[in-house]
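Support request, please re-run this one:
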Amino acid sequence: MKKLEEYVRSIPDFPIEGIVFRDVTSVVEDADGFKLAVDTMEKLVEDLEYDVVAGAESRGFIFGAPIAYNRHKPLVLIRKKGKLPCETVAQEYDLEYGTAVIEMHKDSIKPGQRVLLVDDLIATGGTTEAMIKLIESLGGVVAGVVVMIELAGLEGRKKIEGYRLDSAIRYPGK
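Re-run finished. Output below.
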C-alpha cells in the first residue's frame, strides 16, 4: 500500500519560482488516495470530542464532509465573502498580497459547541486563525484543527498556538 505522501503531486516553481506547490487534487482523484487521506485525518482526531465539523472553502469541504458523515456530525461551511444567503459573521485576514474575508452563517454554531476545523493545508496559518476567530465569535469552542498537509517552514502553527493542530503530512519546507 502506498503512503499518503506518494499521492501528493509536488509541482516545482508554482505559483512562483522557488515554491513547491503541494497539489491535493492528485490525492482526491485517486480513490485509494482519497480514502487514505480521510481515514488518516479521522484517526488523528479519534480521541477528540466535538459536536460539529467546520470546513473552509473549498478543499476543507472535500475532507470535512466525509469526516462529518462518518462521525454523524453536522458540517458547517466557511465560505468566501458573498457566497452565503443568510445572515453571516465575517472575518478578514491577511494574504501574501492583500486581504481576504471569510464568512459563515450566524446561526451555524451554537454557544458552547465544540468544533473540529478541517482543511486541506496549513501554510502561514492566516485562514485557520480567521476560522478560529469566526467560531469563537459565535461562542463556539475550537476542539481542534486537522489538515492533510502542514507546510511547517511557513510556521502557521505559531499563529494558532494554544490550539490543537494535527496534520497527516508535515513538509519541513515552504
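The radius of gyration is 16 Å. Helices lie at 25-28, 31-44, 59-71, 126-137, 156-159.
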